[in-house]
Amino acid sequence: MKRALFIGRFQPFHLGHLEDIKNMLKEVDELVIGVGSSNEKHTKKNPFTAEERIEMINLVLPNNNISSYTVFPIPDFHNDEKWVEHIETLVPKFNVVYTGNKWTERCFKNKGYKVRKVNILKGISSTKIRNNILKDKEWKTMVPKEIANFLEKINAKKRLKK
After folding, report:
1. Interatomic CA distance for residues 113 and 105, integer angstroms
2. Which of 13, 46, 56, 67 matches a 20 to 30 Å C-alpha distance to 127?
3. DSSP-derived secondary structure letter, 120
4. How far is CA 25 from CA 16, 65, 116, in A?
5. pLDDT of 1 higher than 90
């Protein structure tokens, strides 16, 4: 069985993440999703808690007929090698790592892992979504409908203003 690790912050989960996951599951049997920076919350860069981000993922994937995944919170470390070693103790063994982050790519390559880059959907990023929410610009077309509803339910705009 081929298992992949996909680490992201998912602040919030968006259509690019969903597309990446669908593409990954064409190549692997199972996906381990690591919610990075799980120890960060209510900051400008990480406004949503790990629990909220896990809930977002679990709202979207089953509605897209995706069930061969597990989600794990991944805290930040300020030591690249120890970070990867810690992840290895948290999640099931994996054969390949998917990421769009150069630092994550370097950390795993340095430990001998095969790393594949995800495709970044043009015009969609979590940063842009957060900024558009704050500026009352269009953002709902960049996220699955479940995420738009979730962010409205938790009053994301108010959270982002803090």
Report:
1. 9
2. 67
3. P
4. 14, 11, 13
5. no
Distance between CA atoms of residues 31 and 152, nearest Å:
28
CB atoms within 10 A of CB 68: 12
Question: 111: exposed, middle or buried (C-beta count within 10 Å: 0-12, 13-18, 19+)?
Answer: middle
Superfamily of domain 3-161: HUPs (3.40.50.620)
Residue 67: Cβ-neighbour burial (10 angstroms; 0-12, 13-18, 19+): exposed
Tell me the average pLDDT across 54-72. 98
pTM above 0.85, yes or no: yes
Reported as type and span, the H/E element at residue 18 is helix 15-24
| Each residue's pLDDT tens digit, 110-128 | 999 999 999 888 899 999 9
Reading across the β-sheet that carries 3-8, which strands appear in turn?
69-74, 30-36, 3-8, 96-99, 114-117
pLDDT, averaged across the chain: 95
